[in-house]
Amino acid sequence: MSQLLCSLHHQALELSRQYLVCEKELLEILVKIESNKVYLQQGYASLTEYSQKALGLSRDVSWNLVTIVHKSKAIPELRHAVQMGVLPLSKARQIAPHLTKENSEKFIALAQAMPREKLQEALAKECPKIPSIEERARVINATQAQLSLCLPKEVMDKIRRAQDRVSESQKKWVGLAETLEQVVEFYLQHKDPREKAKRHEVRKSKAAVSVKQSRRTVRESDAVARNPELNLRPFNKPITKIQTKARVAIPAGIKHEVIIKNVHQCTYQDPRTQLRCERERFLHFHHKVPVAMGGTNALENLTLLCSAHHRLEHYQSSG
Ligand SMILES: [Zn+2]
Ligand SMILES: [Zn+2]
After folding, report:
1. Which residues make up the environment of ion ligand 2, defined by Cβ < 5 Å?
2. 61-75 pLDDT, tens digit each
């Protein structure tokens, strides 16, 4: 029996040794894949997407490797320490966000010498601006989520001031959650392209009603009857300007319509899974037929792509 247990132990030791070697080799391959942008050629927008979808790595493992790959461009010592076997990958990932050219030697030495928990404390001490608590948003039931994060003291003071103003306007004490809800709502009303696009729609339909009500000249009515598309465009923007072949800025009205049509989300569809990209930030307007090939700023020629899929789309269309 004891012989069997011993054998299990030796098998585990051997496999974990191979596992660590594989991990290091994978890191080296990913460095080459990143520098040659092999993931674009394989149809993936980023190294992270490639490592999760093509290689099947878990989100955590992929984040560890990709963070080290990216950081090692500026600080090659990080990768070398992993390759030499003096720094485990998990610790390399832990110090990577804090590394600069100036502190890399010191932090790599600290990471080698300390266990993970002590290292986290040391990092928090050395880099007081970087919070030691990770930002985390966790859904706890169908209607609620829990948010934990570190804030600079001045930001917290501002939130408290906002809390006072919200409480005053509601004539009752209002908690932090409701204060944040009001603040976020206010910000989105003013800054979110989706809200701007909705306002544009309302303005447009009001304008359409008022134009209908005010007697239009026979010439104008005829023009709209012949070309209903004219009604889709802002009245102050002549259609000839939109359809010119020269590179002109996309009119705000058309941008709003593209945003509404695509619900302010990247429209890239993964050809393997048919799933649509869920990104709603860093969106770009993309001409399906490029301007250089006669593509216009017409609604049907425009779509929304996140920055990564925009780059992928142009990489693929450039052959
Ligand atoms: Zn484009
Ligand atoms: Zn996307």
Report:
1. 266, 268, 277, 279, 306, 309
2. 898 899 999 999 999
In a domain, 139, yes or no: no
Query: Of the candidates 149, 175, 191, which is a domain's last residue?
Result: 191
Ligand nearest to the CA of 302: 1
Q: How many angstroms is it from 81 CA to the middle of ligand 2? A: 34
Instruction: Say which ligand is closest to the CA of 315.
Output: 1
Find the domain containing 216 and state its range. Answer: 193-317
The pTM of the whole model exceeds 0.85: no
Mean pLDDT over each residue of the chain, to the nearest integer: 84
Distance (angstroms) between ligand 2 centre and the Cα of 263 equals 13
Ligand nearest to the CA of 286: 1
Angle CA 295–300–303, to nearest 5: 85
User: Is 197 found in the same domain as 308?
Assistant: yes
CA of 294 to the centre of ligand 1 (A): 14
Domain total for the chain? 3
The tens digit of pLDDT for each residue in 188-238 reads 888 888 888 888 888 888 887 777 776 555 454 454 444 444 443 333 444
Domain's final residue, options 191, 209, 239: 191
More confident residue, 246 or 116: 116
Asked if 79 and 30 sit in the same domain, the reply is yes
Ligand nearest to the CA of 306: 2
Say if residue 248 is in the same domain as residue 164.
no
